[in-house]
Every structure is written in structure tokens, then in C-alpha cells.
Automatic annotation (TrEMBL):
Phylogenetic classification of the source organism: Bacteria, Bacillati, Actinomycetota, Actinomycetes, Micrococcales
Segments passing through the bilayer: 39-67, 87-110, 131-153, 159-179, 186-208, 220-242
Keyword Isomerase in annotation: no
Segments forming domain CAAX prenyl protease 2/Lysostaphin resistance protein A-like: 96-198
UniProt xrefs under InterPro entries: MmRce1-like, Rce1/LyrA-like_dom
Pfam families xrefs: Rce1-like
GO MF term set: hydrolase activity
Protein name per UniProt: CPBP family intramembrane glutamic endopeptidase
Segments forming a coiled coil: none
EC number, as in UniProt: 3.4.-.-
Keyword Transmembrane helix: yes
The entry's keywords: Hydrolase, Membrane, Transmembrane, Transmembrane helix
Amino acid sequence: MAMMVTPTIAAVAVSLLQRRGKQFIKESGLAPIRKPKRFLLAVLLAYLIPILLIVQAPFIGTWLGVFPGDFDQFMILNFVSGTDGPVRYLLGQAGLILVAGFLNLIPALGEEIGWRGWLWPKLQPLGQVPALLISGVIWGLWHSPLILLGYNYPFAKDGWGVVMMCGMCIVVGAFFAWLRTLSNSVWPAAFAHGIFNASVGLVSLFMIMGSMLDTTKASILGWSGWILPVVVIVLMVLAGAFRATKSYPQMESNEPSN
């Protein structure tokens, strides 16, 4: 959690060096909320999108033979749901994820103020695809100390986990960035980040009991989990969904504040 605040610290430091400290709140998307309807839509999507990203991955991975999916008996899901049954259990999990998402909001905001709040608008002049790639790679490389210790990719060797983390961050970060663009606010992106962290464990419900998972290949962390999201991202790029908006404060004026 202490590490998660470092992107915000860096963004504040750079803003102060640029003599734009007084504009930081607006430029990072913390306030004001200019379009309430879009903001509320983005908050709703911030809850749904991360769960969909995580849940679709086991289906694609199983189809490709890289995820140990149990879509015949759902033994783990039936076991943990007990007498309540899978449907009631999953509804309960949806509620718990919502609560956990709000609890995760503040630490996630520590990252998102830096990544989607401050950095994403700064990359807009480069174009949609460069902005997505650069922001995702930076976010992925930022995880390097933990990834090299075996976090997320315990079976990866020789820094391959860092490469995979950059890929995952490009894919997932694209949707967080879109929420930032849609709402002109960093809050939906931070909420989505919190929901993502809270729901990533859902993948275990679809596994064969006792199986091992190579996250370089399967789940949203692995390449098979990126296929469907990348198709969606490509369509969004073609539709101009990630284009810069004039509502970004830093797009309105590049003059430093006094």
C-alpha cells in the first residue's frame, strides 16, 4: 500500500517543478466533476468492466487449452458455495467485491492519480495507440520490483514476468484510461482499479480442483486472457474512443501558473 502512493508523489513533484502545483487537482482529474451523468455511467462501468475482464479469461484460456478450466462440474464453485448454491454465492461475491472495491479505492487512487489522472492526459498529443502503449509499459515497469520477486508470475524466469506484466497493464490500463476519458475524472479509474484488485481471485472458481495455473499463459495476467479485450480495444481505437478531449485542463493551456 505504501508503494501504491508513489505515482501520486511523483506526479505532484513534477507538477511543482513545472510550476503547475495550483492546477494539480484539476489536471489530475480529482475535481471538479463537469459531467455528472457521464461520471455516474463511468462509475457503473468501473464496477462491471474489471469483473468482465477477469471472468472472460478462463473461458478463452480453457478453449485454447492453457487454462485448467472445470466447466463441466464446477467442483470448486459448488464446494465453496455449499448449501447456498452457486447463484446465491456469486451474488454474495458481487456484493463483497463492491464493498471491497470501495475499501480499495483510496490505495488505488494513489496509483491512479499518477497513471490515469496525471500521466494519461499528458500523453494525449502522441495519439491513441502510443498513449496506450507508453502508459501501459510505464505502469508495468513500475511493478518490476515485486514481479522479479515472483509476485503474479511465480513460474516466469529471466525477467519474463516483467514483460508479461507490461502486456497486462497495457490491456487493463486501456479500459481504465477510457473511463478517465469518458468521465474526465480519475475517480472511476481508481474505483475500477479497486474492483479489479478485489475480484481477481474469481478466476480460481473456474479451475480444476488441485490444478496449477501458469499466469504467463492464462487468466487476465496471461496472453490468452488478453485476446478478447484486445479485440475490443482495437475497435475502440478505430472509433476514436481514446482521443484527447478539450475538457482536459492541461489541453486548454500549456502556460505554467505563477
